[in-house]
């Protein structure tokens, strides 16, 4: 097993742009980044690779060189370490993949099955903790927004009272990822979780709970909406309502979509895509 010190050395001595060039080929340099198109629907390159990591502006994912290899080659964290060790030694078992912009065979995909299992386990645990005084206050806040208990159940809303450790391993750190406190909004399509969005405990929501608003490590208020690590924002919220013959209504946010769907009825599909939030 590679030690933490050796991991730091490995990360420090490998240029992520060299890794990306080996896997994706030549990209387009823009300032400090080299840009790639990694999905068929990209009109412009949206995958940025820097000397020390990457940022996918299409999905919001980002990470260091380990996360880059995991993302591009769909490897586990230990597999990515082994691949980079081989790459550093000049004999990586590289299987180049074509630039996705030139292929129509690889659509956007939901998070991995490992991610799905970890989140389903975390949500199942939260579902058993929805009768606390604070959870009841959270439901009352939703009721005041026009979201009754039937809609809460229909869309799988849950209240998370504290940072919750999950079984999902953050590819950037190699450690378990935590689910932030707030109202959990699962974004599900055809039974698959694409994203977990969280309405943070700030503003009038924090007031309704009777608590101080949550803050980041730097002391600033938490963003109003965040996403759990690894979430993908390419699926519509309430996307299963999109059926032939239905009138589509696109709303600003998930809560608006719930209220609109309830008011308009089954002849309509009220949906929203992505939206504000940090991943």
Q: Mean of residue pLDDT?
A: 85
How would you classify the helix and strand content by structural class? alpha+beta
Q: What is the helix content?
A: 25-40%
CA radius of gyration is 21 Å
Number of DSSP helical runs = 9
Q: What is the string of helix and strand elements?
A: HHEEEEEHHHHHEEEEEHEEEHE
Distance between the termini: 29 Å
Shape: globular
Major sheet, described briefly?
5 strands, antiparallel
Count of DSSP E strands?
14
Beta-strand residue percentage: 15-25%
Oligomer description:
single chain
Low-confidence stretches: 91-107
Write out the strand line-up for the largest beta sheet, numbering strands in chain order.
1-2-3-4-5
Structure write-up:
The chain is α+β, with helices and mostly antiparallel strands. It contains 9 helices and 14 strands. The chain is globular.
